[in-house]
Automatic annotation (TrEMBL):
Annotated protein name in UniProt: Sphingolipid delta(4)-desaturase DES1-like
Chain ranges of the Sphingolipid delta4-desaturase N-terminal domain: 14-52
Organism: Prunus avium (Cherry)
Transmembrane residue ranges: 78-97, 159-179, 191-210
Similarity comment: Belongs to the fatty acid desaturase type 1 family. DEGS subfamily.
Keywords: Endoplasmic reticulum, Lipid metabolism, Membrane, Oxidoreductase, Transmembrane, Transmembrane helix
């Protein structure tokens, strides 16, 4: 189904049965060239965030301390704290890992990798090294069928067909996000994946041994609830799910950018992945005419609500393109 077919589905008030198919290149490379040609000073924003190490360290230590403090807490109390507090910390660390996948803490790539493994600790499940492999492909091959694992599989899209199923999918979207590449495009693990795994297991086992199962459960709960029906998880949907057939990537300009490494500036991020989140707002300030005409969001919670309740929107609401011969 092309864009015309998608529009027909929208007009009929039913969910589309195929993706949006684009027959042009992704929009970010061309916009990057245009902006740099007109505003070469944007290059001055390139490079690491000097405060990244400190920010990550504070969040990691705070979350691990919280986990130890809850070793005797009741399950209801633990769940409440995990949703209202721990989820924000762990999602912050997930997006710190996103930042580190672009080598935006240190100029030396291996230091970013080590810091990513450290940032991974409170998340409870090893993912930092593997995430980088797939995420860089998402940037290089945005929307390319069979390569960009950010896009839901056809199995997901055919199963998630109504409001109730979409709500369940949102609740479990972190599992789909994490497991989709394993089934569709598995990559053989290397030295760094095993290192990430062993260090994470060492932390998890130590947490259980010294503090008990509840401390470890708090970390896992913080990760799970923070990636599902949660305001910060709205960015998973807001970034590339197509609510406007003429736009592929969307930015969010709300207050949660302060807790999420400004990942909401997503058009700006894809245009300039070498600029740290702390400076992405400056791109919009330097070249406002390139972004002010694009649709954007001010609430991630509203995006989740729109996704679930709009009967014409679902996992098929993503832009895809055929791979070129070189891919």
């Amino acid at each position: 189904m092309g864009r015309g077919g998608q529009r027909e589905a929208e007009e009929e008030g039913v969910m589309a049965t195929d993706f949006f198919w684009s027959y042009t290149d992704e929009p970010h490379a061309s916009r990057r060239r245009q902006i740099l040609s007109q505003y070469p000073q944007v290059k001055e924003l390139f490079g690491p965030d000097p405060w990244a190490f400190l920010k990550i360290t504070v969040v990691v230590l705070l979350q691990l301390w919280t986990a130890t403090a809850l070793h005797n807490a009741g399950w209801l109390k633990m769940l409440a704290i995990a949703y209202c507090f721990g989820s924000f910390l762990n999602h912050n660390l997930f997006l710190a890992i996103h930042e580190l996948s672009h080598n935006l803490a240190f100029s030396t790539p291996v230091y970013n990798r080590w810091l990513g493994i450290f940032a991974n600790l409170p998340i409870g499940v090893p993912m930092s090294v593997t995430f980088q492999k797939y995420h860089l492909e998402h940037h290089r091959f945005q929307g390319v069928d069979g390569i960009d694992m950010d896009i839901p599989s056809k199995v997901e899209a055919h199963l998630v067909t109504n409001v109730v199923k979409k709500a369940i999918w949102v609740l479990l979207q972190l599992f789909f996000y994490a497991l989709r590449p394993v089934f569709l495009k598995p990559k053989p693990p290397g030295y760094w994946e095993f290192l990430n795994l062993f260090i994470q297991i060492a932390l998890d086992v130590s947490m259980v041994y010294f503090c008990g199962w509840k401390s470890f459960a708090y970390l896992i709960l913080s990760t799970f609830v923070g990636g599902g029906m949660h305001p910060m998880a709205g960015h998973f949907i807001s970034e590339h799910y197509v609510f406007n057939p003429d736009q592929e990537t969307y930015s969010y300009y709300g207050p949660l950018n302060l807790l999420t490494w400004s990942v909401g500036y997503h058009n700006e991020h894809h245009d300039f992945p070498r600029i740290p989140g702390s400076k992405l707002h400056k791109v919009k300030g330097i070249a406002p005419e390139y972004y002010e005409g694009l649709e954007s969001y001010k609430s991630w919670s509203q995006v989740i609500y729109m996704y679930i309740m709009d009967r014409t929107v679902g996992p098929f609401s993503r832009m895809k393109r055929k791979p070129s011969k070189s891919e």
